Amino acid sequence: MADAPIIILFRxxxxxxxxxxxxxxxxxxxxxxxxxxxxxxxxxxWAAGGASRWWLHHSLVSLSLSLERLGAPLVLRRGRTxxxxxxxxxxxxxxxIHLTRAYEPFAARLEQDLxxxxxxxxxxxxxxxGSLLAEPEALRTKDGRPFRxxxxxxxxxxxxxxxxPLATTPRRLTPVATRPRSDDLASWRxxxxxxxxxxxxxxxxxxGETGAxxxxxxxxxxxxxxxxxxxxxxxxxxxSQLSPYLHFGEVSPxxxxxxxxxxxxxxxxxxxxxxxxxxxxxxxxFSVHLLHNWPSIPEAxxxxxxxxxxxxxxxxxxxxxxxxxxxxxxxxxIVDAGMRQLWETGWMHNRVRMITASFLTKHLLxxxxxxxxxxxxxxxxxxxxxxxxxxxxxxxxxxxxAPYFRVFNPVLQGLKFDPDGAYVxxxxxxLARLADKDLHxxxxxxxxxxxxxxxTLGKTYPRPxxxxxxxxxxxxxxxxxxxxDAPAPDAA
Length: 492
Ligand code: FAD
What we know:
The protein is mainly alpha-helical. Helix content is 50%, strand content 5%. It has helices at 20-27, 40-43, 50-70, 81-92, 105-120, 150-160, 195-204, 209-230, 243-247, 253-266, 271-293, 315-326, 333-345, 350-363, 368-378, 384-395, 410-417, 422-427, 436-439, 447-453, 468-480; strands at 6-10, 32-38, 75-78, 96-100, 124-128. It starts with 5 loop residues before the first strand and ends in a 12-residue tail after the last helix.
């Protein structure tokens, strides 16, 4: 039916620009029905966490406004995605459903279910690529297997990227004659009940496509040139902070790539920064490649021998240590600053993510899965591929993981990457008056220095919950009990 409406399912592609699923429907000239379905059941244990729900709410507000302006308002439905889409097709007479591929195991399963059930109802499903630079099936080693090591993966990706022009941004969409029923977004209760928490998120972020474009522009203007040298410094706003926008698809990696190319041509001095930034986008692609090929990585160690890793056996102690870590009360200022940044802003600098994750899994011997869960609930950029792959990378159990013997020393990391203490002073204000030399190890400061800074250890700020040397030794002993050089597993 040439004039039958096309349903466009939005998921992690909450944008109008460079959205092939939307552009193709608009180009067909048929009426369109844009829809977002809140389907917690499909995602199961990986339904969006608190910070992601806050983001999603605001992103949907932004997308609704954009679609309303284009003439076809967004329909909101809640429940099982496939049921909701088929019901919407019945109501509107749609014969085609467009969607952008997603790569979480549950999202991929959903696409298969949808295709099967739509076929029986004579509805066509068209899946578009729109969230990656290269589809995960496209890249293979010489012997036809998925990559397990980043560098050859990145080489292959760069060689294969044949960047097509961006998808056309529609200027106008044709709505269906009768506006379909839509849920009231507020009734989904995506916003947190703790208003003080949301306050911190609001101050930091503008979810949605406009916010994404502003963030990208700002980064190109002021961050890109120094990115290669400053990206490890949490005290400097040296990274793009595009991660939540990329996760929700409010900007596509192809848009980033094109923008960087243009910046490189305008200003050759940004070349090193652009190359370094693209490599980070490469890590994002690699994480998806891993999740696609090894769908158990959110739950199980990539290297099976890590299933026997001797984590802290005392459950009560584990709970106590985890509470101290998650609240930013470990007694290590750089760790505490990171965990508080996460709680206050829904984001944490990459270097500090590595330090805090190393501290949890190595100094405290708490399973990486517990840390990944906490991040899942508190990060605005919580992303199943990036979060799982990164936690496993730090814990040593992942593909191409950090060497197991690398146990970050939180004091040295603090001194190196937050040399003037600006980061710690911002997020751990009770230490702000300590001198730079004492800031990253307050327990080493003499009594006078502590008194002058108004710090009473054990009272205004905790003593370290574990001694670094002891923690390091114990972690290495734990690693020695498992065979860390066993071969990595075959893909699923
Ligand atoms: P930039 O430095 O500006 O990088 C640009 C983009 O590249 C990022 O937005 C992101 O999409 C991607 N990227 C950068 N570093 C990585 C990386 N190491 N792995 C994969 N992609 C990367 N990132 C998430 O998006 N979601 C997560 O849930 C997540 N969990 C993490 C958990 C741990 C323990 C660690 C160590 C890292 C995690 N990361 C995660 C990766 C990384 O920390 C963030 O992507 C980055 O800090 C986001 O900040 P940015 O946008 O300023 O990054």
